[in-house]
Design brief:
alpha/beta; 7-stranded mixed sheet; 5-stranded mixed sheet; 293 residues
């Protein structure tokens, strides 16, 4: 099956969410939450992520996680990830309680597509405040893709992780998982990068993005993905967009949808004139959706 067919197949049974002038969506991809060890790339930006997530919760946004939320290639047990990052999962559970949480799986958390995954592994978490187990999201489905559609049905935003354009990270993801877990992860301590990773190999990254962009242009779809970790929102070429990731060296990036405007946003640590630190939100690029409300 070609990458074109894999991407098309992903949207055949995708659930549809409303896209109106009142819609507020925060789309974040590639958190790669780990178990708190030296390989946990999420650790360095966990405070930025929690601040951003709390902002979106308080402002009434619906949170869409666009794949690779949890690092299940390097780590075997989801319970360890939930335990280490229990504050994040507590906040995600609040989104879920208000029906404002949607999860898409990527290649690094492909196991989530298994039937009953949430019930068996994401039903509860240990809350440090109450010192007891609390309900997480036992009935939460994990999707391969999601469609945001306006009421008239004449405009869609197509959301998926983007690994479908990557043969080894889609069709042969189990083989890649084995290599990452037992070969590339140990070598990473010595500075050897995984050559099959779309996030670390720039030649591979460029090839995947070219495929995603070509697919979006050929099908006239407005496509939002993650996977390559490289944020993109070009108002002059808005067919292919990318949220970026939460594992950049000094920031996290995401895409917001509010009042019919798409915004590529960066959250980073900044300094005030009095030398106090704060978390800053910066809009990098914007695109007005070409539809009438």
């Amino acid at each position: 099956m070609s990458y074109y067919s894999r991407l098309s197949h992903a949207f055949e049974t995708a659930p549809k969410l409303p896209l109106t002038c009142r819609s507020r969506y925060a789309i974040i991809s590639d958190c790669h939450r780990g178990r708190g060890d030296s390989n946990d790339n999420f650790l360095k930006n966990q405070n930025l992520y929690f601040t951003a997530l709390n902002h979106y919760y308080q402002e009434g946004f619906t949170y869409i996680e666009l794949g690779d939320g949890d690092e299940l290639w390097e780590n075997r047990r989801m319970s360890q990830i939930i335990e280490i990052h229990n504050n994040v999962f507590w906040l995600l559970s609040l989104f879920h309680q208000q029906h404002r949480l949607y999860m898409v799986y990527g290649n690094h958390d492909m196991e989530k597509k298994k039937k009953g995954y949430s019930k068996s592994l994401c039903s509860t978490y240990f809350c440090t405040d109450t010192q007891c187990k609390e309900t997480l999201f036992p009935d939460l489905p994990f999707y391969e893709s999601i469609l945001l559609e306006n009421p008239c049905g004449n405009f869609q935003l197509c959301l998926t992780h983007g690994h479908q354009a990557d043969f080894f990270n889609s069709t042969f993801w189990k083989c890649n998982r084995f290599l990452v877990r037992y070969v590339w992860r140990p070598l990473e301590h010595f500075g050897v990068l995984d050559p099959t990773s779309a996030a670390k190999n720039y030649t591979h990254k460029d090839r995947i993005e070219q495929r995603l962009s070509r697919y979006a242009e050929l099908t006239h779809k407005h496509l939002i993905t993650g996977h390559t970790h490289r944020p993109r929102l070009d108002p002059n070429a808005p067919y292919y967009m990318n949220t970026g990731s939460c594992v950049h060296p000094r920031c996290i990036t995401c895409i917001e949808i509010e009042r019919g405007v798409l915004s590529l946003v960066k959250w980073t640590l900044s300094v005030k004139k009095d030398r106090t630190l704060y978390v800053a939100r910066e809009v990098l690029s914007q695109f007005q959706l070409p539809i009438e409300w």
